[in-house]
Amino acid sequence: MNGKLRNMTVLYLLRGDKILLLYRQGGKVINNVWTGSAGGHFEDFELNDAEACVLREMKEELGIRPDDIEAL
Length: 72
Known about the structure:
Blueprint: E1 8-11, E2 14-15, E3 18-19, E4 22-24, E5 33-35, E6 38-41, H1 50-62
Antiparallel strand pairs: 1-6, 2-3, 4-5
């Protein structure tokens, strides 16, 4: 361990009593499993803006844009 912190974000998408699950393939940390979250590491320009990181990861991983969601 190098002693450096890695800032990450996680998001969960809910509709009623359902939650979106993702199947992770080819990941460095977690691989070939179902997981209940999308997300990832903060970019340098997002370090003080968690919402920006969530929105970017949501678009990258799920193809969802901010105007596609409610109640962020």
